[in-house]
Amino acid sequence: MPLPSPGPLFETPPVPVNPGRGWRWGSLSPPAAGSRGADRAAVGTMKVLLLKDPKEEDPGPDPYVAELGLWGLEATLIPVLSFEFLSLHSFREKLSHPEDYGGLIFTSPRAVEAVGLCWGRGRPPAEWEGSLKDQWNAKPVYAVGQATASLAGRMGLAPQGQHCGNAEKLAEFICSREAAAPTPAPLLFPCGAVKGEALPAMLRDKGVPMESITVYRKAPRPGLRESLRGYFSTQGVPASITFFSPSGLTYTLEHLRELSGDAFRQIKLAAIGPTTARAMAAAGLPVSCSARGPTPRDLADAIGEALRT
């Protein structure tokens, strides 16, 4: 039976951060030097809607909000997704036998969370903290992006590949490493029910063995429509909206079109990366900009430049 999303360690608020107003960063000083100070003045104060959860590490201001503030932009976060965890008994069995695998692949924070949930809520017990963790660390543990790698580190793992901006680049990194030291054992890949095919396809084409297991599925966050309606009723139509996943696009697009009306065509639509950008294009949306990497700086620069044109 599916398990609900975990408790306070990983859960995010069910409503926008500082709902209806967004984090305000008028007191921040502009960049000390370089072109970004001038760019900030050129953009002026505009509203940006980020369809993502707040960061999980601590309750402080989200780094995406902070970086957009350096452009003089007022950003609001609205969480979009909730998660159900699946097949945790089977996943635990696989994790309990690291000798059967050549390593681990994580492409999302939720896949890392599933490791802890295999033994119940919170951190795993001594069974993991002792020999199992060390046995997995003797093998490559691949993770895409800093958020996923950070959670893996909190689980006691030593990830590599976090500099890769997306799953496709991580696949290239894995293939280059595995080609240098091939192993007949498959890499264990815990993933969501809907996953991109770029990484599995590239590994398959390069002859890198991989075994996937579905450990979570996404669903619209409860109260999503009401959160969006509350934002538009108090803030109006934003200058830019950023989608952080194809699923987030699917769950919000109809609501966004309804709430913004004819003004929807004037909104600069941004993507966190190439996978989301392709999903936007497939939905017939113009992609005003796409971040070069899944980082606050890259996204803020992309949105700032798009709003200047």
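(the above was protein one; protein two follows)
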Amino acid sequence: MRTGRAHTGLLDQVEVEYWGSMVPVSQVANVTLLDARTIGVKPFEGNMAAKVEKAIRDSNLGLNPAAVGDLIRVPMPMLTEERRKNLIKVVRGEAEEGRVSIRNVRRDANDHIKKLLKDKEISEDEARRGEEAVQN
């Protein structure tokens, strides 16, 4: 997570509805840097501008896009103490999601190993090695 400076990757997680499905903004618009603190978003189709602007505004990034014709300007807010605290909350939430995801993958792998052991498809030594490999 970068602060204070604009980068096009900031909008990678923002999704917009396009023909009934949710797609990343980068698939329906050209995302460029206008200057060090401003991102420019130009939708490929003019009718998508309002949807893209709303998706950026509704994201939890704290951005306030402004449409100028068919170009959407996304200025980066200054890093205030309040914004910094909000960014910390966002990063902590993403970190927790990552930890939960890792726990789920490990649990599923261990369950699979136990099932193989129960069905006598692997030996106890192989099961122990597999469980150790999952933890590493």
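Reviewer note on protein two: The first helix runs from residue 49 to 58.
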